[in-house]
Automatic annotation (TrEMBL):
Domain notes: Has three domains with a flexible linker between the domains II and III and assumes an 'L' shape. Domain III is highly mobile and contacts RuvB.
Protein localization: Cytoplasm
UniProt-listed NCBIfam families: ruvA
Protein name per its UniProtKB record: Holliday junction branch migration complex subunit RuvA
Lineage, opening ranks: Bacteria, Bacillati, Bacillota, Bacilli, Bacillales
Source organism (scientific name): Effusibacillus lacus
Gene Ontology terms: biological process: DNA recombination; DNA repair
Residue stretches making up the Helix-hairpin-helix DNA-binding motif class domain: 72-91, 107-126
Pfam families named in the record: HHH_5 (PF14520), RuvA_C (PF07499), RuvA_N (PF01330)
Main location: cytoplasm
Function summary: The RuvA-RuvB-RuvC complex processes Holliday junction (HJ) DNA during genetic recombination and DNA repair, while the RuvA-RuvB complex plays an important role in the rescue of blocked DNA replication forks via replication fork reversal (RFR). RuvA specifically binds to HJ cruciform DNA, conferring on it an open structure. The RuvB hexamer acts as an ATP-dependent pump, pulling dsDNA into and through the RuvAB complex. HJ branch migration allows RuvC to scan DNA until it finds its consensus sequence, where it cleaves and resolves the cruciform DNA.
Region (Domain III), start-end ranges: 155-201
Family matches, as CDD domains: UBA_RuvA_C
Family assignment from sequence similarity: Belongs to the RuvA family.
Entry's Gene Ontology molecular function annotations: ATP binding; four-way junction DNA binding; four-way junction helicase activity
Length: 201
C-alpha cells in the first residue's frame, strides 16, 4: 500500500496530476480543487489511497491525511464509490462535511455535487458515529484553512472555474456571489469550494 507520494509535479490536468518520484512518474487522481492548487515544477506531498481492480491500479491523492481518511470512510456508505467520494471531499472542507454529518444537516449535504436526499441520509446514518477523529467540532460552514494565501481580486476564481470546465456565465455568477468573501481575504481554495457548492445547486 502506498501511503503517500512526494516529488516534483510534472503535469496537472483537471482530475489528476503526475508526480515525479526519483525518476518514476506516478499518476495520481485528485479533486478539481486540489488540481488547481498544484503547480508544475513544485515539490508536493500527496497522501494517497490505492485502489486495485482486475483491469487497473489507481492512486487517489489528497493534500492532508484527514481528506484521505474521509475519502476512505465515505466509500463505506452504500452507493458511494471513489468518484463520488472524491467529488465530496473536493467540494468542502473536511471540518464542514464532518460537522454536517454529525449534526444531521441534510440541507448542507444535498448541496454537495452528486448528493441527493437518500445519499445524504445514508451518510448520516452510516457515518454519524464514525468520524470523531476527523475535523474540528463546532465549525458550521466552509473553513478558510490557516496559512492559505488570500485571493487578491476575483480573477483567480474566475479562471479556476473556467479551468474546471464551467462556462463564462456560470463562472461570473459564482464570482459575483462570492465577491464579499474575496474582499475579506478568503483563500482561493476556499472560494473554489464555495463556488462548486453554489454551482451544484
Amino acid at each position: 500500500m502506498i501511503a503517500f507520494v512526494e516529488g516534483i509535479v510534472e503535469d496537472v490536468a483537471h482530475d489528476h496530476t503526475v508526480v515525479n518520484v526519483n525518476g518514476i512518474g506516478y499518476r495520481v487522481y485528485v479533486s478539481g480543487t486540489t488540481a488547481y492548487s498544484l503547480q508544475p515544477g513544485s515539490r508536493e506531498r500527496l497522501y494517497t489511497q490505492q485502489h486495485v481492480r482486475e483491469d487497473a491500479i489507481t492512486l487517489y491523492g489528497f493534500k492532508s491525511r484527514n481528506e484521505r481518511d474521509l475519502f476512505v470512510r465515505l466509500q463505506n456508505v452504500s452507493g458511494v464509490g471513489p468518484k463520488a467520494a472524491m467529488t465530496i471531499v473536493g467540494a468542502a472542507e473536511v471540518d464542514a462535511i464532518v460537522e454536517a454529518i454529525q449534526t444531521e444537516r441534510v440541507d448542507f449535504l444535498k448541496r454537495l455535487p452528486g448528493i441527493g436526499q437518500k445519499t445524504a441520509q445514508r451518510l448520516i446514518i452510516e457515518l454519524k458515529d464514525k468520524l470523531d477523529d476527523l475535523g474540528t467540532p463546532g465549525i458550521g460552514g466552509i473553513v478558510v484553512p490557516a496559512g492559505d494565501s488570500p485571493l487578491t481580486g476575483d480573477s483567480g476564481l474566475f479562471d479556476a472555474l473556467l479551468a474546471l470546465g464551467y462556462n463564462e456565465k456560470e463562472a461570473r455568477a459564482a464570482v459575483r456571489k462570492l465577491s464579499n468573501e474575496a474582499a475579506e481575504g478568503a483563500s482561493l481554495e476556499s472560494l473554489i469550494k464555495k463556488a462548486l457548492q453554489l454551482l451544484a445547486k
